[in-house]
Amino acid sequence: PAQRTELLARCRDLLARENAVLVAHYYVHPDLQDLALETGGCVADSLEMARFGRDHAATTLVVSGVRFMGETAKMLSMDKRVLMPDLDATCSLDLGCPADAFAAWCDAHPDRTAVVYANTSAAVKARADWVVTSSCALDIVRHLKNRGEKILWAPDRHLGDYIRRETGADMLLWQGACIVHDEFKALELELLKTEHPEARVLVHPESPAGVIALADVVGSTSQILKAARELNAPAYIVATDKGMFHALQQQNPDKVFIEAPTAGNSATCKSCAHCPWMAMNSLQGLVHALETGAGEITLDPELAARARRSVERMLDFTA
Ligand code: 13P
Ligand code: SF4
Asked: Would the pTM of this model clear 0.90, i.e. be above it?
């Protein structure tokens, strides 16, 4: 604890000294989330993180999350320095959608609008027409469908399938998945629901269709938090990364939050649903980045400009 207190103090000093602001995702360690809020940064979903970083006056953004979040922050603020506590923090969706294979897929379907999830590399975003996050994907695809457009969707197959079911849009789906949400199990969730009839079910749409079908609310991390604040049920079963339970409990001290079952956690492991890449973010990494300039995101300016166009479409659409 002494070391933790000392590290937190160093982080506060370094953030101030470097004119830096901390932009954190809900899945990172509670210490980083609390530090972000306490020092004037933010804890947010991936859409809000992008907007917050772009609009903030700090000259250095420290993005505590995974690499695509750092890249998105950088392309929206090429004049700012963007640091990450660990540059190796990636995402199974990003890894599962290499830019060359994605470009070949687009080339094979020139009649379709390419819509990619934010959880992709800058190179994939540069090839896409639109970027979306889980908080705005439904509205944007509905808008494209109303304009008569057919869609190529990458990379998350569960989110894509959910949006296709909800909107009836003509969508071809890349077959990527999030290694965390893909593990939630519908049968076990149904059993857990019968044990907690008073609980509402909140689900991130990267989860399989059977899990989504049992949800009272489906949404991004911020939308899950909003639902937990606004619904008046005493208890909630939550199918998303366990990092979220910190903000859920903080914002709703009188409500009970229960982890949705994954393959491993029914009896043996109580917190299997945690992203290994989000877990790479640490106070030590933050200190190291701010002290040495390690973990800096760099992007080719021409590639960044092309990627920025599809991200800015999303930001304008949701403004
Ligand atoms: P959100 O946009 O809901 O924050 O999701 C990002 C993510 O990586 C979820 O796994
Ligand atoms: Fe990617 Fe899943 Fe981790 Fe989110 S939780 S960063 S989608 S692997």
From this structure: yes
